[in-house]
Amino acid sequence: MAIMEAVHSIDSNIDWRFVSYGTGASTLSEFGYAVVDLQFPDENPFLETIIASFKVINELSPRVVISHEEFAAVLAAKIHGTPAIFLTDWFENENRIAMQVLAYAELVIFLGERGVFDEPTFLKNKVIYVGTFVRDFKYHIGDRERARREMGIGNDLTVVSMLPGGWTEQRAPVFDLLVPAFLRLERSKKLLCWVAGEDFSALRDRAKGMPDVLVLKKHWPFEQLIVATDLVITKGNRVTIMEAARLGVPSISLSHGLNPAEDFIVPRINPTSRCVSRELMSSSYQDV
Q1: DSSP 221-232
Q2: What pLDDT sits at residue 65?
Q3: Which residues of the chain have pLDDT under 50?
Q4: Residue-level pLDDT at 237
Q5: Architecture of domain 144-281
Q6: What b-and-e string marks burial along 132-141, b requiring 16 or more CB atoms within 10 Å of the CB?
Q7: CA pair distance 139, 141, nearest whole angstrom
Q8: Rounded to the nearest 5 degrees, what angle is found at the Cα of 141, between the Cα atoms of 138 and 142?
Q9: Cβ pair 235, 256 in contact under 8 A
Q10: Nearest C-alpha neighbor of 104 from the set 77, 129, 127, 125
Q11: What distance in Å separates the CA atoms of residue 234 and residue 215, rounded to the nearest whole number?
């Protein structure tokens, strides 16, 4: 959304259509954008996504397809004869099928620095490195008191925020690790804010009787909560870690090893970011 809004500010005559599924589609719709929903879950089936993407491209007849880490859309565009631009911030072994798909993109825009990942040899002269992309923030670290005041959080509270992104407790459980560890913090006034998303109902029930644990379904803008926080904890989601680092708030990443690219990127974002491995997660609360 931020990228397309920036493009539109440069040329308001550009017309675009968002095509997504799962959390992406619901988020776009929630923010008032028209979106073609492919009706897939977040873990979308690859072959079916190629077919669905082709049908949408054929119907809309765009001048260009811009794909954010959706490899199936690149293949669908190639089959249709429409140029595709691919957005990513990671590469993997060039012999993997996913990487080979990028040979069919007209251009790859890499949202990071050159040299962090080995560039596939077949992408020579097709990759533009633009550096880390972070959206414009409505709150900054200097707005800490205002953010807390607007959220009803006292300045004397030690605040820890859990921002898990799309990693649910079913896929990447940390509740039984994090909450006991938080409750053992030697602070008389403290608050754990957990933005639970799909886990809201279940975690709200589990947190009953814990006055220091606040479970939220969602919160926007995210940076309001981040700057109101003393420590951000995530499940490896690199964008949140990146934004916390840019805002000057320390963070800890609890990884289940489900996304190797994020495990590689997170500890390289900023010295204030710390990556906690799956092995460390199995250690005692005291060690964490």
Answers
A1: SHHHHHHT-SEE
A2: 98
A3: 272-288
A4: 87
A5: 3-Layer(aba) Sandwich (3.40)
A6: beebebebee
A7: 7
A8: 90
A9: yes
A10: 77
A11: 15
Largest CA distance in the chain: 63
Closest CA to 189 of 228, 225, 159, 149: 159
Cβ atoms < 10 Å from Cβ of 52: 21
* Amino acid sitting at position 273: S
CA–CA distances in Å: residue 213 to residues 159, 180, 204, 205, 264: 10, 11, 9, 11, 31
Domain ranges of the chain: 144-281
Q: What are the tokens at 264?
A: 């590689």
72: which 2 tokens? 């199936």
Contact 75, 56 (CB under 8 A): no
pLDDT at 267: 83
Q: Are strands 84-88 and 190-195 parallel, antiparallel or unpaired?
A: unpaired
Contact 104, 74 (CB under 8 A): yes
